[in-house]
Design brief:
The structure is a single chain. This protein is α+β, with helices and mostly antiparallel strands. The chain has one domain: Lipoprotein like domain (Double Stranded RNA Binding Domain), CATH 3.30.160. It is built from three helices and five strands; from the N terminus they run αβαββββα. α2 packs across α3. The longest helix has 37 residues. The relative contact order is 0.17.
Amino acid sequence: MKKYLCLLLLCGCGFTPMFSGSNTDIYVPAISGINGIELRNALNSQFGGQKEPNAPYQLVVSLKNPTTKYKALEPTGSATWQEIQLTADYVLKHGDEKIASGTETASESYTFVRYLVAANASYNNAVTNTITVLANKIGTRAIADIAAYEQKK
């Protein structure tokens, strides 16, 4: 009984999910670099697959090179933790009209060990996780901006 009451209350409140009825026909042009390829693939996945260049919306992303910072040092001065940070600038367009633009940043800490293979694996996992977070941030922002733009029309 409680389930039905909650359902009835939600139906009457005017709430609509962000993805319902919204247009996710967004073309993402190539982004330079290996990390750019991964970011573009993650964004396309979030938008339901790769779209054609003539899609109504275009999301142009510029990805900066990753930066790393030392987070923890041993008494000997060796680093044990590092943080990788990725920053991307984006512009969302509808035809030639600029709808939105902004900058998103994501970071991830990882263990930095002396063994080369383990250190590389740890770094690569941190980069992959950071790209996923960055794609989620940019994709969610783009979908929200498109929904707001379509409501104004």
